Inverse folding.
C-alpha cells in the first residue's frame, strides 16, 4: 500500500525468510504458532493510522459519556455473569476498522466492531519486530504508538495487569489455556510480566478468596488480581462448571473487568453516531418495525451477527427472512443487523490485492487516559477476515501494521 516499502518487501520476500520468521516466533514464544502468519507486514501512512487511533478514542468516550447507553448496556449483561466491583472504565479496548473507498475515491476507515477486552498484546510486538529484523527492513519503521519503545510498552502493561502486586499473585485466566490458539500470546505475557497462566476451571475457592495450585511446589497460591481472558460464550458452549460464581463477592481485582466485555461490544454499534460507523439495528427492533430505513435496500448488503460471540462465530451475510425468524423472540435482542462493510483490497501481494482489517489496541491504566499501544492487522481475501477463514490461502492471515518514521 505504501511505497516504496510495499514493492521493496515483495521484491525481497523469499520462502526461506518466511520459514525463518515462523521459526523465530515459535522459539520466542515457546510454542508452535497454530494460526496463520501472513507472509508480509502491512505498510500504512502514519496519518491514516492516527485517524483510526483518534476514532477509537472518540467512539469509546462517546459511549462512556452516554448515561442512557451505560444503563442499557448494564441491563444487557447476563445475570449469571454480572460481576461485582466494576471499575469506572475498561482497562483494555480493541477497535477494528476496515478500509473503504469514499465517493471521492479516497481511503477511509469504517468501524467493524469494538470490544472492551484484551487482544494479543504480548505476541503482536514480537511479530512486528520479527518482520523488520528477519526481512532486513528499515529499523526505524514504527509499530508502537505515541513514541513508545518496547520497554515503555511493557511498563504500561505491567501497570495495568500486575499493578502493585507480586506477579506470582497475578494470573492470566482462560478456558483451557494450553489448547487455545492464543497460547503464544499468553506465554509472552508470562515471560515479560512473570504472571501465571491458569485454567479458570482449576482455580480453588476458599471463602472470598481464589487460589491456584503451583505446578512446581503443589502449594495453593492466593490470587490477588486476574488478567481476564475468559470468553463467556466459550464457557457456555463447552458446558464448563466453575469452582466459583461470577456473582460472588470475591477478594480479587480484575485487570479487564468481565462486565466490560458485554458493555462495549457489537451491542454498542447501533448507539454510536460517528462518520466511521456503519448503519445497524437490533434484531428485536427490526421485527418491531424500527430501523428499516437505516439498512440498505439490498439484503445482500446486510450482515447478521450475534452480539456475544468471538472470532466471527455465527456471522451470516445477506440473511433471509427465514434466517431471522429462526431466532426465538426471547433471544432477538442479542442479535444485530448491520450494513456490510466492503473492504478495499489495498495490500498488493504476489497473490493479488488483499484486504486488511486493522485493530487498534489500547490500554487504560487506572486514573489515566486511554493509551493507544499497537496495531494488529488481519489480511484476507474471503468474506471473513479472521485467520480461521483464510487458512488454505497464502499472503493472508495475522500481520502487523508498520509506519514510516515521522
Amino acid at each position: 500500500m505504501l511505497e516504496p516499502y510495499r514493492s521493496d518487501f515483495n521484491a525481497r520476500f523469499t520462502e526461506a525468510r518466511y520459514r525463518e520468521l515462523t521459526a523465530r516466533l515459535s522459539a520466542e514464544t515457546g510454542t508452535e504458532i497454530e494460526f496463520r502468519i501472513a507472509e508480509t507486514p502491512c505498510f500504512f501512512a502514519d496519518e491514516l493510522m492516527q485517524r483510526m487511533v483518534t476514532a477509537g478514542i472518540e467512539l469509546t468516550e462517546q459511549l462512556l459519556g452516554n448515561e442512557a447507553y451505560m444503563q442499557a448496556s448494564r441491563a444487557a449483561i447476563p445475570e449469571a455473569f454480572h460481576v461485582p466491583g466494576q471499575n469506572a472504565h475498561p482497562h483494555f479496548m480493541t477497535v477494528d476498522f476496515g478500509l473503504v473507498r469514499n465517493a471521492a475515491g479516497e481511503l477511509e476507515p469504517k468501524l467493524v466492531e469494538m470490544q472492551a477486552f484484551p487482544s494479543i498484546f504480548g505476541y503482536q510486538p514480537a511479530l512486528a519486530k520479527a518482520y523488520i529484523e528477519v526481512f532486513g527492513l528499515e529499523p526505524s519503521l514504527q509499530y508502537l504508538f505515541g513514541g513508545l519503545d518496547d520497554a515503555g510498552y511493557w511498563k504500561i502493561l505491567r501497570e495495568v495487569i500486575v499493578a502493585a502486586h507480586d506477579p506470582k499473585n497475578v494470573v492470566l485466566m482462560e478456558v483451557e489455556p494450553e489448547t487455545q490458539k492464543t497460547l503464544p500470546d499468553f506465554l509472552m505475557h508470562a515471560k515479560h510480566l512473570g504472571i501465571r497462566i491458569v485454567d479458570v476451571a482449576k482455580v480453588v475457592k476458599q471463602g472470598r478468596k481464589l487460589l491456584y495450585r503451583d505446578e512446581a511446589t503443589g502449594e495453593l497460591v492466593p490470587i490477588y488480581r486476574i488478567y481476564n481472558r475468559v470468553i463467556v460464550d466459550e464457557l457456555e458452549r463447552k458446558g464448563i462448571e466453575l469452582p466459583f460464581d461470577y456473582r460472588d463477592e470475591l477478594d480479587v481485582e480484575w485487570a479487564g473487568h468481565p462486565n466490560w466485555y458485554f458493555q462495549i461490544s457489537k451491542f454498542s454499534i447501533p448507539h454510536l453516531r460517528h462518520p466511521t460507523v456503519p448503519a445497524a439495528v437490533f434484531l428485536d427492533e427490526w421485527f418491531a418495525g424500527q430501523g428499516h430505513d437505516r439498512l440498505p435496500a439490498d439484503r445482500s448488503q446486510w450482515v447478521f451477527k450475534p452480539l456475544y460471540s468471538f472470532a466471527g462465530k455465527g456471522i451470516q451475510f445477506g440473511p433471509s427472512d427465514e434466517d431471522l425468524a429462526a431466532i426465538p423472540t426471547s433471544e432477538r435482542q442479542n442479535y444485530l443487523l448491520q450494513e456490510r462493510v466492503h473492504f478495499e483490497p489495498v495490500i498488493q501481494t504476489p497473490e493479488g490485492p488483499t484486504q486488511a482489517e486493522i485493530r487498534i489496541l489500547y490500554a487504560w491504566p487506572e486514573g489515566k487516559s486511554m493509551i493507544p499501544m499497537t496495531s494488529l492487522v488481519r489480511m484476507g481475501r474471503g468474506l471473513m477476515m479472521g485467520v480461521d477463514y483464510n487458512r488454505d490461502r497464502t499472503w493472508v492471515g495475522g500481520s502487523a501494521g508498520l509506519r514510516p518514521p515521522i
In short: The chain has two domains: 5-36+61-265+363-402, 279-339. The mean pLDDT is 93.
